[in-house]
Specification:
The chain has ten helices and four strands. With about 290 residues, it is an alpha+beta fold. It folds into two domains: about 210 residues, Multidrug efflux transporter AcrB transmembrane domain (Multidrug efflux transporter AcrB transmembrane fold, Up-down Bundle); about 70 residues, Alpha-Beta Plaits (2-Layer Sandwich). A four-stranded antiparallel sheet has the order 2-3-1-4. The chain is elongated.
Length: about 290
C-alpha cells in the first residue's frame, strides 16, 4: 500500500488536532494542581444536603481566606483547596465542620509549600529535557543518522503537544488540573511513542540492507505495511485496558488513565503517520539537486 503518498494529508490531520490545543495553551495554559502551585487539600465526606457555599463559609471562618470547593462525583466527598495550613489549623477546621454540620469524616489531607511546588516544576522540565536529549542521542547513534533521531523526537513532540493541548482545554472548560501523575503519564507516553517508532525505523534499516536498489519512499511504504498490523494489535490491547481503567477506576486515577489513553492513541498514530512521513520528507529534500531542479 502507498501510505506515504498521503503524507501531506497526515500532516494536515495532525495540524487539525494540534491547533486547538496550541491555541488553548497560548491563551489559557494549563491548570496546575497543588503539586505545582503549593497549598493544602482537605478531602471530607459530608451529608448530601450540605451545600458548597456553607462548607466554604465555615472554612473561611478559620482560615480567613475563601477556599475552593470541588465536588467529587459519585461520592459524598468534597475537596477543600486553600493556601498551605498547619496540622493544628486543619484540626480546627474539622472541629468547626463537625460542630456545625454533624458527622464529617476526613478522608485525605495534603499540604505542599510553594517552594516545593516550584522545585517539582523545575525537576519536571529538567526531566523532560534530559529524556528528549537522551532519546535523540540514542536513536541517532543506533541508526547512525541524525535524521532518524530528529524525526523521532519531532514525532514525540507531536504527542506531547497533543496531550498538553487536550489537558489545557479540559482545564479551561472542565477545571481539570495537571498534577505529578500527569507528568508520569506524559513520560510514559513519550517512551511508548518512541518504542513504536523505533520498531518501524528498524524495519526501514533492515529493508535498506536487503534491497539497496529501492528508493526510500518505497522502503518506507513496505516497512509501514509490514509493521502496521503488529503496531495496531499491540496498541489495541493497551488501549482497551486503559479504557477500562478510565471508565471503572476510581477518581484518583481517572484523569491519569485518560492522559495515558489519549497519549497511547496519539503515539500509535504518530509512530506510523508522523515519524515515518517526516523521515521521508527529510530524505526526499536531502536528495533534491541544488537549485531545486
Amino acid at each position: 500500500m502507498n501510505f506515504m503518498r498521503w503524507r501531506v494529508f497526515y500532516f494536515l490531520l495532525s495540524l487539525l488536532v494540534l491547533v486547538p490545543g496550541l491555541y488553548s495553551l497560548a491563551r489559557w495554559g494549563l491548570r496546575p494542581s497543588i503539586d505545582f502551585r503549593g497549598g493544602s487539600v482537605l478531602t471530607v465526606k459530608v451529608a448530601n444536603n450540605v451545600k458548597d457555599q456553607e462548607l466554604m463559609r465555615l472554612v473561611q471562618q478559620v482560615t480567613g481566606e475563601e477556599p475552593e470547593i470541588i465536588d467529587i462525583k459519585g461520592s459524598r466527598q468534597r475537596e477543600i483547596r486553600m493556601a498551605p495550613i498547619s496540622l493544628a489549623k486543619k484540626e480546627k477546621i474539622m472541629q468547626v465542620l463537625r460542630t456545625k454540620l454533624g458527622q464529617v469524616e476526613e478522608t485525605h489531607f495534603a499540604s505542599l509549600g510553594p517552594a516545593l511546588g516550584r522545585e517539582l516544576l523545575i525537576k519536571t522540565i529538567t526531566g523532560l529535557i534530559l529524556a528528549t536529549l537522551g532519546i535523540l542521542l540514542y536513536i541517532s547513534l543506533r541508526f547512525r543518522e541524525k535524521s532518524f533521531g530528529v524525526c523521532a523526537v519531532l514525532a514525540m513532540l507531536h504527542d506531547s503537544l497533543v496531550l498538553l493541548g487536550v489537558f489545557s482545554l479540559l482545564g479551561h472548560f472542565y477545571q481539570v488540573e495537571v498534577s505529578s501523575l500527569f507528568v508520569t503519564a506524559l513520560l510514559t507516553v513519550l517512551s511508548f511513542s518512541v518504542h513504536d517508532t523505533v520498531v518501524v525505523y528498524d524495519r526501514i534499516r533492515e529493508l535498506r540492507h536487503r534491497h539497496p536498489e529501492l528508493d526510500f519512499l518505497t522502503l518506507a511504504d513496505v516497512a509501514v505495511t509490514q509493521t502496521l498490523t503488529r503496531s495496531l494489535n499491540n496498541s489495541t490491547t493497551i488501549i482497551l485496558v486503559l479504557l477500562a481503567l478510565f471508565l471503572l477506576g476510581g477518581p484518583t486515577i481517572h484523569w491519569f488513565s485518560f492522559a495515558l489513553l489519549v497519549g497511547m492513541i496519539s503515539g500509535t498514530y504518530s509512530s506510523i503517520f508522523t515519524a515515518v512521513p517526516l523521515l521521508v520528507v527529510w530524505k526526499t529534500w536531502r536528495k533534491r539537486p541544488a537549485g531545486g531542479k
